[in-house]
Amino acid sequence: MQLNKDLYIIGIGPGNLSDISRRAYQVLNEVDVIVGYKKYIECIKELIGEDQQLYSSGMRKEVERVEKAVELAAEGKKVALISSGDAGVYGMAGPAFELIEKNDISITVEVIAGITAANAAAAVLGAPLMHDYAVISLSDILTPWEQIKKRLKAAAEADFITTLYNPRSSKRKTQLKEAKKIFLKHRSPDTPVGIVRSVGRDGEEIMITTLVEMPLEKVDMLTTVIIGNSNTYISDDKIITPRGYKI
Amino acid sequence: MQLNKDLYIIGIGPGNLSDISRRAYQVLNEVDVIVGYKKYIECIKELIGEDQQLYSSGMRKEVERVEKAVELAAEGKKVALISSGDAGVYGMAGPAFELIEKNDISITVEVIAGITAANAAAAVLGAPLMHDYAVISLSDILTPWEQIKKRLKAAAEADFITTLYNPRSSKRKTQLKEAKKIFLKHRSPDTPVGIVRSVGRDGEEIMITTLVEMPLEKVDMLTTVIIGNSNTYISDDKIITPRGYKI
């Protein structure tokens, strides 16, 4: 395969080598440098060759990694900048394009889509995401909490299936509690809720519960939460949202 | 690879053999039967072996295909039931679980996630989906139009980036026009809009425009429409939604 771009922004999916796209796998095999958060580099370490250069760093260092990737690509290296899930969903695609555009850097870029947490979590829960849905990050580090609350209220009122990203961390515990309260105002306490931790990775945990019973303390930054709509139901160990077919 | 389930419900992604997951590719190679809409079977025809049985049918035959797949799996065949994109998003996972549950059929099932149109379209547009987003199907065949309108209004008011599925067909032309009108009430006429037709397939077309200028007649059932939020902007030939990083 001839790599015809300078920078590839790649979503690696949930974090194993099976749920990655064939295109992403091939490009990751052939680039000169892979840049990413150290835990995501760890997820794909088996495919990294001895001749490939790595640049990894820790949490909150997103802008630094983007700068490094763009710099190396501008120097003539073939670079892969990785995100978990899809790089276009709260991932590295945004800051990369922002940096390139603001500094008028002339490199060619391709985004290679990946399976984002909403879809990966839905797959192990059954079929919860079968109708109109909203994706909301509960992290208020980069977004005012009032804006997030407004979106939670809108999603709850309009009966969207709702997937929560970054729902809770050791330092951010109140947001999920408040989200639950907002949903309980507009949706039945029995609304099915799926909680998936480390989807697709070692130690994956799946819990099926209801809105009123959702155990907040089971949720952390490795967790994705899916709240059903008013038609969603639980059957055996699956969450199912009917699409409307006569079955 | 040992197939340890009876039925695999597989999202093949946008419709080429590169953007499919490695897991989906491997399972599709090894099942006895592949069941799907004839156009999606066409997308993966290169990987189908001579010893594999196919069962394909046309549009609106979703329930028939689900019945066939479940029946074959119950008879002891290893079956793949395919959807384009992600089978859990307006795809075959929902009706399959509904059928299995209602008829108390005892087969084992695995859903293999795929890249849904929202993420595939976002990747070719740049980084439009970088913040909270809603996915709404404009098809009112299975959902009352009033409910869809309510969701459009909620998404527009709460400043969700919004991806429209099934936006317009030869028989369904008014919905997109009405959706545009709803968004124009709550969002600037200059809001970036990306229109992607046949994403990832031969003849892929990408158009970047604005809400007020969105040409309705360019949109059909093969098209995905992404409407930016109030911070989304167009730079060169890309749509970018800032995540909030200082860059």
Which helices and strands occur, and which strands form pairs?
2 copies of one chain form a homodimer.
Chain A: E1 7-11, H1 22-30, E2 33-37, H2 38-43, E3 53-57, H3 62-74, E4 79-83, H4 93-102, E5 109-112, H5 117-125, E6 126-127, E7 133-137, H6 145-157, E8 161-165, H7 174-186, E9 192-197, E10 205-210, E11 223-227, E12 233-235, E13 238-240
Parallel strand pairs in A: 1-4, 1-5, 2-3, 2-4, 6-13, 7-8
Antiparallel strand pairs in A: 8-11, 9-10, 9-11, 12-13
Helix pairs in contact in A: 3-4, 6-7
Structure in words:
The structure is a homodimer of 247-residue chains. In chain A, the strands form 3 sheets. In chain A, strands 3-2-4-1-5 form a 5-stranded parallel beta sheet, sandwiched between helices. Chain A has a 5-stranded mixed beta sheet with strand order 7-8-11-9-10, with helices on both faces. The N and C termini of chain A lie far apart (46 Å). Chain A is 30% helix and 24% strand. The mean pLDDT of chain A is 97. Chain A is elongated and about 55 Å long. In chain A, strand 2, helix 2 and strand 3 form a beta-alpha-beta unit. Chain A folds into 2 domains: 7-115, Tetrapyrrole methylase, N-terminal domain (Cobalt-precorrin-4 Transmethylase, domain 1, 3-Layer(aba) Sandwich), CATH 3.40.1010.10; 118-240, 2-Layer Sandwich (Methyltransferase, Cobalt-precorrin-4 Transmethylase, Domain 2). The longest helix of chain A has 13 residues, at 62-74. The first copy, chain A, has 7 helices and 13 strands. Chain A is α/β, with parallel strands linked by helices and 247 residues long. The first copy, chain A, has helices at 22-30, 38-43, 62-74, 93-102, 117-125, 145-157, 174-186, and strands at residues 7-11, 33-37, 53-57, 79-83, 109-112, 126-127, 133-137, 161-165, 192-197, 205-210, 223-227, 233-235, 238-240. At the A-B interface, helix 1, helix 3, helix 4, helix 5 and strand 6 of A face helix 1, helix 3, helix 4, helix 5 and strand 6 of B. Strand 7 of chain A pairs antiparallel with strand 7 of chain B, so a sheet runs across the interface.
